[in-house]
Amino acid sequence: MTEGSNRLPHLLAEIKTANVVFAQAQKTTASAAFVMGKSLIEAKELCGHGDWTGFLKETGLPPRTAQRYMRLVQSGLGSEYIGLIGVTEALREIDEAQEIMPSDGKAIMAVWEGEPTPDTMMWWRLDRHTGGFFQVHTNDDDPDVATFLIVHSMPVVFIAFIVDVFSNGLMWDQPRQQRFRREVTMEERDEKIAFVKAEAARFQEARK
Questions:
Q1: What is the pTM of this model?
Q2: How many CB atoms lie within 10 A of CB 115?
Q3: Max alpha carbon distance in the chain (Å)?
Q4: Ordered strands of the 146-155 beta sheet
Q5: By the 8 A CB rule, do 107 and 174 touch?
Q6: What is the pLDDT of residue 3?
Q7: Burial 45-68 (b: 16+ CB within 10 A, else e)
Q8: How far apart are CA 184 and CA 117, in angstroms?
């Protein structure tokens, strides 16, 4: 056995130990960031007009850092998930989710190629951190059967995840071509949802 192969078990043990320590540190960091975020949000609500800047100076936190901690809490991701992926990655996901959301008072409608029929999704913003979505998915085994789902309130990071799954598959290894994607008014959104509901009711009645 060579000297190099003798050293491998030692290196393996070091890597395993470091990995456990790193994972625990990441969880501890996420937990602390979450506690700070919640406390900062509450403090900002309690501060009188003009007192927030002074309060932040006393904490020793730069405004941008404080904003990052508050965004983690407001995102709806949860401390366990943030501990799993890390604070930096969580903030990146939050930023990317914001980029796919429509402008205020609008919804995005997108249609993806499907086999044999396309799938449709609409999503919209309720506020900076939450939105809603409407999804129509066709049964591949029976093209005459489709399911639809309406979620009225959900963190935008989860909406972004669903859009990503529609685009690339659950394991991100089945990319699909997007037929089109555009912003529609909320009135158009409501009309399309009402139409799908009416068609679903008609279909159910016909199958009785």
A1: 0.74
A2: 9
A3: 77
A4: 146-155, 130-138, 119-125, 106-112, 178-185
A5: no
A6: 59
A7: eeeeeeebeebbeeeebeeeebeb
A8: 22
